[in-house]
Amino acid sequence: MPAFDPEVLRPQFPALAARQDGRPVVFLDGPGGTQVPQRVIDAVAAYYRDANANTHGAFATSIRSDAILAEAHAAVADLLGAASPAEVKFGQNMTSLAFALSRSISRVLRPGDEVIVTRLDHEANRAPWIAAASDAGATVREIAVDLATCTLDLASLDGALSERTRLVAVGYASNAVGTVNPVAEIVRRAHAAGAWTFVDAVHYAPHGPLDVQALGTDFLACSAYKLFGPHVGVLYGRDELLASLPAYKVRPAEDRWETGTQDHEGIAGTLAAVDYLAEIGDRLGGAHPGAGRRERLVAGMGAIEAYERGLSARLLGGLAAIPGLTVHGLTDPGRAAERTPTVAVTLAGWTPRGVAEALAAEGIYAWDGDFYATTLVEDLGLAPTGGVVRLGLVHYTTTDEVDRLLATLGGLVSTGPRSA
Are residues 189 and 158 in the same domain? Predict the structure, then answer.
């Protein structure tokens, strides 16, 4: 397998050529939305030019549009390891899809039933299920977090599970602090109690291979714009469950979950993003010549995962040497497999917004705040001071960019805060 060199891939991303004050911009904002390769831009434009029509028409543009939509469902099924393209549903975003599904599930919940959420998750994987439970008169239980490591307390899960549990909602990885949860084990324990599982894979999806069948989860959601594509949401559901649950739809619609006219151009761009990830499997992942798309995607995402672990180790090692800087989450090199290269930090004497502004002034783009992981940031006691600074590495990040970040953060310690 060739060594992973992001410079082989970076020319495909037009945004990465951006400069600020004569220096290249460093994009560490990926957890909020990654940059996209040129082929994604081209696919969106080509859809408008060559296939811009609604579905199931008798004319050429509609026929082309239908073919693109069908291939996109098949491509995302390969990305997720789904059994069939019919198990893939597109929508506005993960949040909207989760609310649509939770509204449906609320109709089969009964008073006395229980739903489990975690205190680590993005609110989009809490609020829909809390609302569904409230609507049905069901009870919500929560999985606690070890705040020293920002990892889930599985004993808390075991204490919450019972014969009354109907659904367990858990994130594959924390979008705020990067923790990768033991999702397969959580799914196993939930199923042993007779519950369904919903996995929010939005943050994990750009960082490693997904396999919904191996996980055994009943539902999983992710967002194309977090994995180098357009603003499109994706829902996976086991076919028999999607067919059995009550759905809110208009009478003639043939699909029970893709309501209304979809974002066809965004779905075309999503197909192009999946093709890009499969190409990484060919070029840098050691996929066999002639391999199918699923094998190529697994190879590509595996190569990305391995490269990013090295980047993450370099970043965490450098951050540990900066006086007054605190990393919130896992820092143990022996637990590298339990985190994505997303790191949450605070710097003594600085507000998170002040750090983000100082970095932005140097052409380094990073988010500050709670990123809708509101409950976690509140539990950490960081909400009153503005949350954390989130440093998000992805596979197009270089070691030189990590070193530039570390040097800039180190410089902030000596210059002092620009804002209190």
Answer: yes
